[in-house]
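Below is how a single chain appears once it has passed through the pipeline. First comes the sequence as given, then the structure the pipeline wrote out for it. We keep one example in the README because the format questions we get most often are answered faster by looking than by reading.
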Amino acid sequence: MVSGIEEIAPKVSVVVGAYNHKNYISKCLDSILMQQVTFSFEIILGEDASSDGTREICKAYAEKHSDKIKLFLRSRKDVIYINGNPTGRYNFIENLKACTGTYIALCDGDDYWKDPYKLQKQVQLLENNSNLIACHHWQYIAIEKEGSFVEVEAPSKGHGYFSQTVASVKNIFANQVRMKTRTVMFRNIIDDDFFPHWFYKVAFGDVPLSFLLGKHGDFGFIDEPMAVYRQTNSGISTTGLEELGKKKFKVQHFKNWIQIWDYADKFYGFKYHKEATETVVEFYKTITDNLPNTINSFIKVLYYNIFNRSLPFRLKIASSKWIILYYRKKLGYKLKRKLTTS
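Resulting structure:
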């Protein structure tokens, strides 16, 4: 109670993580502030101690829109390092914990929304379907051309597009659907026990969040491109690309995905292990495509599968067989001789 008047919690909390987004954060915030809704919403803006002037822009917006924006000024001393790289994971988790809305929507500071009725449509879908824990929609992609960003249609095949109106976590395990951060809204079930220990260790946060939400319901889909993913090549998904080169980067990138699927597999008590294994084999296909066709590569991949993955051995037999058969086909007699003499 404040001055005898009961405070009414917002219907939606929009979480925005900002770090070195000086050239993009204004468009992101404006696209949220333009939302046409029949309910109240708040913007949880977490600024992660940028070095490019983003913090000053965020402060100005928070001052101008103090009725909507709650600004949290983070410190780099709290940054969570994953695989030796600084991430925005701490900022993201703390932003979620600060949400007071019934629903939570996400938008990174370098992305933005296109449809002024996006929040209204998503709230209506969740209000009308109690079986849904979350809903999402499709997107555009903004690519850089000659110094400016141009919006293009996002490719759907192999990029997580799922035309069915409802998906389950089984579809997530089968890698048939991906809920893009800027497109998702979910029920606010965040509490101190929501995030397992492994969420602080894995390289990416969006798919792991989907796995966590999937314990509580299905995922609705609105087949409209209501948001824009800005490809700046500076996010966590491209960390290490310049240092490693394309092939080594892809190997590490898909090892990160294998780790996520393994943690999720255990999180669900191996209920969807068949789907998880089929997806992991697809990840291995990309890994092997980016390695030399040598016995040394075979040994490294098989060793990783058997000794570096945290699953029980019996649950890694299928993927081990695939690796052996793949390299046997590629290397033929050399591998057969290696296997029979070792």
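The chain is about 40% helix and 20% strand.

See the next section for the split statistics.
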